[in-house]
């Protein structure tokens, strides 16, 4: 079966990458390529939508697509768990709504790095995230860092908040789920994330570097091919790659 894909943000870096992938795939076909000037109803008739646009536009695109019954893969950043909960309610309240897959990072290495951080989280009382991106990134903290902090926070449920001394000082970062997140925006980089965990006489650093946008390709294809069968709201590639790492316990 051929999957017809509508791409929102098609004129951008991620959108152009997606168009090349669709062109090169036997089972995917381009239905519509939307830019900031397009009408959303160009998406109608697609089997799946991909949103890789702008944080300010993403909510409207997701609501339109889900509301029209078109499953959508959302790669655009800027989605917190609270905003995702709004979409979950929307999908639950609309029987015909299309599934929504929020994928903060399409790179398999990044997804694993986030899962490893959540696995380690119950064992360390100090945890901070440092993420670094290219100077053109408009949002901070990154969607990946927000997702990582939220999963780390969840994994520590019952352990209490991490130690984040002097967190009221601006240079100590922005707290997400109680985890200080520090954002760098600079030339020469694509994307990096370090989760630094500190315990009794030791630190553990979980670092991931995106060296080329090609790291996103496998995840984009996986999500687009999974979306037609998806139900409700999914967050992250983890379940799609069979990741079931324990995230609680430890520290007895
Ligand atoms: N999940 C993941 O693994 C990854 C996610 N991202 C995220 O994907 C998003 C796009 O990144 P990137 O491709 O680098 O960005 P670009 O700036 O290269 O492209 C942005 C795209 O969005 C469109 N756009 C901008 N504003 C609007 C608007 N108001 N309404 C509709 N469309 C709009 C632009 O259209 P126009 O040309 O008309 O301006 C363009 O097509 C970002 O949020 C980024 O963080 C990026 C990399 C990986
Ligand atoms: O804007 C980017 O480039 C990226 N955005 C995503 C994020 O906010 O986490 C994913 C990746 O880090 C690249």
From TrEMBL:
Residues 3-106 form the Dihydrodipicolinate reductase N-terminal domain. The keyword Transport does not apply. Its EC number is 1.17.1.8. Keywords: Amino-acid biosynthesis, Cytoplasm, Diaminopimelate biosynthesis, Lysine biosynthesis, NAD, NADP, Oxidoreductase. Residues 114-227 form the Dihydrodipicolinate reductase C-terminal domain. CDD domains: DHDPR_N. (S)-2,3,4,5-tetrahydrodipicolinate binds at residues 134, 143-144. GO terms for biological process: diaminopimelate biosynthetic process; lysine biosynthetic process via diaminopimelate. Pathway: Amino-acid biosynthesis; L-lysine biosynthesis via DAP pathway; (S)-tetrahydrodipicolinate from L-aspartate: step 4/4. Pfam families: DapB_C, DapB_N. It is found in: Cytoplasm. GO terms for cellular component: cytosol. NADP(+) binds at residue 37. One of its GO terms (molecular function) is 4-hydroxy-tetrahydrodipicolinate reductase. The active site is at 133 (proton donor/acceptor), 137 (proton donor). NAD(+) binds at residues 9-14, 75-77. Its main location: cytoplasm. It catalyses: (S)-2,3,4,5-tetrahydrodipicolinate + NAD(+) + H2O = (2S,4S)-4-hydroxy-2,3,4,5-tetrahydrodipicolinate + NADH + H(+); (S)-2,3,4,5-tetrahydrodipicolinate + NADP(+) + H2O = (2S,4S)-4-hydroxy-2,3,4,5-tetrahydrodipicolinate + NADPH + H(+). It comes from the Bacteria. Homotetramer. Catalyzes the conversion of 4-hydroxy-tetrahydrodipicolinate (HTPA) to tetrahydrodipicolinate. NCBIfam families: dapB. PANTHER family: 4-HYDROXY-TETRAHYDRODIPICOLINATE REDUCTASE 1, CHLOROPLASTIC-RELATED, DIHYDRODIPICOLINATE REDUCTASE. Belongs to the DapB family. This is 4-hydroxy-tetrahydrodipicolinate reductase.
